[in-house]
Amino acid sequence: MQPRVTSLGLLIKPNPADTFEYPHHIDRASLDALPSKPGIYIFRDENDRPLYIGKSINIRTRVLSHLRTPEEARMLQQSSHVEFQRTAGDIGALLLESRLIKEMQPLHNKKLRRTREMCSLRLGAHVKSVPEVVYARDLDFACTTDLYGLFATRRAAQEKLREIVEMQMLCPGLTGLEAATRGRACFAHQISRCLGACVGVETAQEHYRRLKAALNEMRVMIWPYEGAMGIVEECDGWKQTHVVDHWAYLGSIDHAKGRKPVKRPARRAFDVDTYKILVKPMLRGELFIQPVRL
C-alpha cells in the first residue's frame, strides 16, 4: 500500500496493520512444541537458514507475540518454522542468544549481528593525564584498570568525553579535546564554560579529581576472579552452570547430562555483550556464582 495525499493535502502513510495477515504458513507443529519456559528461539526459512534469534523467560508467549506484530511482517513472510533451545534461566538465555547471533548471523538481528571492536577511555594516575582512546585489540579490557566506558567507535568515545567536559565545566584543552597553549585561557573559559584550570584559577589536582569523578560513572569493571567461574541457574529441578572467564562466555554445563561440554578457548577475548549482561546483576549480588574446573 502506497502513501496517499488527502484532498486537504495531508500525507497519510499506510498502517502495517491494514495489510497484515497472520502467518498461517509457519509450521504449526513447531509452534505447538514451544514451551512456556526460559530459553532462545530461532525463526528459520524453508532452507533452514536463521532469520531471527530471540530470547525470553517464556518462549511460547514471546514467539506468539511476534506472530501478531505487523511491523515484523517481512521476517514472518520468510519464516517456515520456529525452533527453540531451553535454558534454566534468563541469564543463560541472554548469554546463549548473544553467542548464537554472532555465530549464525541471522538476517533480522541487525543490532547484535556483528562482533564489535570495542574501544574505551583510559585515564592515567598523574594529575596532568589526558584521557586517551584505547582499543580491545591492544589491551585485555577484562584486566586493565582505569578504563571508562565501552564504545563502538573512537568518535563515540570522544563525543562522550566532550559531553562530560561540557556538563562538568572541565577544560577542553586539559582533556585533549582541543589544542592547549600554556598560560592561555581556552575558548570555553572565555565564555565561562570552564572553571579555569587552563590558567590556574582551578588547580590541576582539583580539575583531575572532578574529571575522574565524572568518568567513574562509567568505569569498566575488571574481572574480579582469578579464572573461570560458573553462574548457576535452576528451573523445575534442572540445573545449568554458565561458564564465564574474564567476561567471555565459554558455554553451559548441563548437569542432567552428567558431562562438561565446556573447553577453555585457545584465545580468550573480552566480550562486550557478556559484560553488559552480567556486570549489573553481579554488582547487585543477584547471581549464584561458584568456581568451575575446565
Automatic annotation (TrEMBL):
Gene Ontology MF annotations = endonuclease activity
Q: What start and end residues bound the annotated signal peptide? A: none
Give UniProt keywords alphabetically.
DNA damage, DNA excision, DNA repair, Endonuclease, Excision nuclease, Hydrolase, Nuclease, SOS response
Using the record's annotation, list all stretches that form the GIY-YIG domain: 36-110
The protein's matches in InterPro entries, at most eight in alphabetical order, are given as: GIY-YIG_endonuc, GIY-YIG_endonuc_sf, GIY-YIG_UvrC_Cho, UvrABC_protein_C
- Family matches, as Gene3D superfamilies: GIY-YIG endonuclease
Query: This protein is called what?
Result: Excinuclease cho
Instruction: Print the organism lineage.
Output: Bacteria, Pseudomonadati, Pseudomonadota, Betaproteobacteria, Burkholderiales
